[in-house]
Design the sequence.
């Protein structure tokens, strides 16, 4: 029996690195300390139905084909397209992302990550105002006030609270949960709000107003705050502001409740502006609650290779970035792409209906371990190994800390990195032939 | 009776548990549902497990009713997935990300059944 300690969980942006995995005869027999999300993903590698062989759509049905045939067809689609969309790359390694960017450049495609339907607006907010950052270790060791704004870690990042933010005991936070005040701002009383010390219920789409009101209170401009802002009484706003000013070290964790609602990137911008003012009195930082375990890694790799974090368009033979134009959703909504390569993501499930309709119309190549709604629309399907379980690689945690993911078991499936390398080679061969 | 509400979509641990297992009927069960305040369910005369038709300016979808007293009255929640995304606002407002939260939605009781994952994709997206 092989016991793997300090194993990294490849599910969410918390990237918990304390799992113990037991392997017998190349089968995972025990998973310790993982949450329900991580456990189901790791156990699922052998439990769930996998895509066993490469598939190609013939007369409306997906039929088995060889790996070489699938790679060749995928390469042909990309070479023959005027402008293809390469999307996803968030549940895979940085090494695969790097190759995917090379392929996008070679084929003059648009490449975007899952941030497009997630923390994309956060990136824009950071461009506007910057982001006072910290590592999760600093939050664990120092924070006496934690605010979860528009996020629900009980469901989306279940071990975040015990490892870093709510219950964790650190150097200056020896009392753990007892020494820490937890506030939640949300439009509904989520399971995270139910275990917080303070719950502030804001009306949908009013986060920006509430943030600005708290900022006014921090700057001693109480007189300009109306009696109610976004459904929140002035008294509560003043309490929140005092709480933030008096904290020794506070952290605002913010989620989809800020990026997917009205005001979008202006909400992240408002958090940053608020913290800028707050840092004149106290120490405060902000960390986005990233969903896919390596969506942060995509941003890092894309930044150092192209100068931009996502939504990069290579149509002009150089990197061009304008997320409202070159983002995956916008290119699909305008019908601006004539083929798509989707890997390590599921836009069939997670894009808005109008964008999915466009995906259904164009040739679609999918690289994924599992059958999902995107498979229903795909024309070529290439099965892949599960990175972080069957293949190793680097991933970045939500606080931009890189961690090396281990391989627990062997597999015959090829890694995303290998598949995209093979497509790239074929693309170059076809282009030379032409 | 129709109820005017605002729709919020997002992650639940149950939906997330089946993220890499979407052909499993449990994924369908955990996503094709709508969490509402018990008072709102009373207003509609709907019990937990009965079917609701949720309609927005962008489409309509049939889901199962669930109860969640954490939702204020007038706010409904559908877990992220093909069912919720059939009715979210695709407009990105020029910043790349569609509107997945705070969409005005009309809810009413229906006799129709929700469509499972494969039937749903075929009904909504096959030409």
Sequence:
């Amino acid at each position: 029996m092989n016991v793997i300690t300090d194993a990294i969980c490849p599910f969410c942006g918390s990237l918990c690195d304390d799992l113990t995995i037991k392997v017998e005869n190349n089968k995972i027999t025990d998973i310790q300390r993982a949450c329900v999300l991580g456990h189901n993903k790791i156990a699922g590698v052998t439990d769930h139905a996998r895509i066993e062989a490469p598939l190609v759509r013939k007369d409306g049905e997906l039929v088995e084909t060889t790996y070489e045939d699938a790679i060749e067809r995928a390469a042909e689609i990309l070479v023959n397209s005027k402008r293809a969309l390469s999307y996803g790359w968030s549940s895979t390694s940085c090494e695969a992302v790097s190759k995917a960017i090379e392929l996008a450049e070679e084929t003059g495609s648009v490449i975007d990550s899952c941030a497009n339907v997630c923390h994309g607006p956060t990136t824009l907010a950071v461009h506007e105002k910057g982001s006072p950052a910290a590592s999760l270790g600093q939050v664990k060791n120092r924070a006496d006030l934690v605010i979860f704004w528009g996020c629900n870690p009980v469901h989306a990042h279940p071990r975040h609270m015990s490892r870093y933010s709510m219950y964790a005991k650190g150097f200056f936070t020896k009392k753990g949960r007892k020494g820490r005040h937890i506030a939640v701002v949300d439009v509904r009383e989520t399971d995270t709000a139910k275990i917080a010390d303070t719950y502030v219920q804001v009306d949908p789409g009013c986060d920006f107003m509430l943030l600005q009101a708290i900022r006014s209170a921090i700057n001693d401009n109480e007189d300009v705050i109306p009696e109610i802002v976004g459904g929140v009484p002035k008294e509560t706003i003043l309490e929140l502001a005092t709480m933030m000013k008096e904290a020794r070290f506070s952290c605002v964790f913010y989620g989809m409740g800020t990026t997917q609602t009205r005001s979008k990137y202006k909400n992240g911008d408002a958090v940053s502006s608020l913290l800028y003012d707050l840092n004149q009195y106290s120490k405060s930082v902000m960390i986005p609650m990233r969903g896919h375990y390596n969506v942060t890694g995509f941003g890092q790799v894309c930044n150092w290779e192209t100068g931009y974090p996502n939504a990069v368009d290579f149509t002009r033979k150089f990197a061009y970035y304008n997320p409202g134009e070159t983002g995956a959703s916008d290119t699909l909504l305008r019908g601006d792409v004539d083929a798509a390569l989707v890997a390590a993501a599921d836009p069939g499930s997670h894009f808005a209906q109008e964008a999915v309709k466009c995906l259904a119309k164009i040739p679609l190549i999918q690289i994924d371990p599992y059958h999902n709604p995107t498979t229903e629309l795909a024309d070529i399907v290439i099965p892949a190994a599960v990175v972080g379980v069957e293949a190793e690689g680097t991933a970045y945690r939500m606080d931009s800390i890189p961690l090396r993911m281990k391989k627990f078991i062997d597999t015959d499936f090829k890694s995303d990195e290998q598949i995209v390398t093979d497509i790239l080679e074929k693309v170059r061969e076809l282009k030379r032939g032409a | 009776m129709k109820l005017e509400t605002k729709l919020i979509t997002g992650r639940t641990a149950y939906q997330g548990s089946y993220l890499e297992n979407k052909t499993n009927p449990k994924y369908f069960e955990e996503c094709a549902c709508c969490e509402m305040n018990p008072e709102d369910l009373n207003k509609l005369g709907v019990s937990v497990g009965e079917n609701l038709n949720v309609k927005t300016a962008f489409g309509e979808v049939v889901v199962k009713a669930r109860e969640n007293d954490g939702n204020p009255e007038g706010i409904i929640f559908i877990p992220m997935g093909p069912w919720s995304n059939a009715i979210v606002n695709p407009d990105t407002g020029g910043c790349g990300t569609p509107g997945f939260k705070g969409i005005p939605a009309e809810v009413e009781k229906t006799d129709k059944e929700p469509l499972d994952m494969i039937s749903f994709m075929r009904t909504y997206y096959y030409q």
